[in-house]
Each structure stands twice: as C-alpha cells, then as structure tokens.
Amino acid sequence: GGHDVRSRRFEYQLRPVKIGNSAFVGANAVVMGGVTIGTFAAIGANSFVLHDVKENTIAYGIPCEEHGERIPSDDFAKYKF
User: Fold this and answer.
1) Is the distance from CB of 24 to CB of 37 less than 8 angstroms?
2) pTM of the model
3) For residue range 41-52, what is the model confidence (pLDDT) as tens digits?
4) φ, ψ at 14 (rounded to 5°)
5) How many other C-beta atoms can be found within 10 angstroms of the C-beta atom of residue 46?
6) Do 57 and 41 meet the contact criterion of CB atoms below 8 Å apart?
C-alpha cells in the first residue's frame, strides 16, 4: 500500500501484490503495489519490480527486466498449475 501524495488528506491506497505458485523473489527485492509475479517466475535479489512478470520467467535488475525462461516451455507445461 501507500498514500496518495497529491491529495491534501493523504488517503491510503491499497494495491495488492500477487505472487503465483512456486514463484521465487530474491532477497531485498522491492515489488511495487499492483504488480503480479507469475507462476514459477524467479526475481533476482535486489531487483526493483515495477511491472508484471510473466510466468516461468527469470527477471532481475533495477528496473527489473525479463532475461529468459526459468525452465524450457515444454517442461513448464508439465508443472503448470
């Protein structure tokens, strides 16, 4: 969550983070409100996640960017929930 800094009353805004099954978020990663991390995605340590990350994706960096698949697509299809 956070606050609307443009409002005089500084209202609280709740934007939940959604993390899919078997996803991994590395140490000290920051995931902004409203972001969805897909099933079996892996986020690298110290990353700053501003946008949704697709399932079965390796992503890292500041800002966080996608860098490939976590496992081959054929194998992932077997484990997909």
Assistant:
1) no
2) 0.84
3) 999 999 999 999
4) -100, 115
5) 14
6) yes
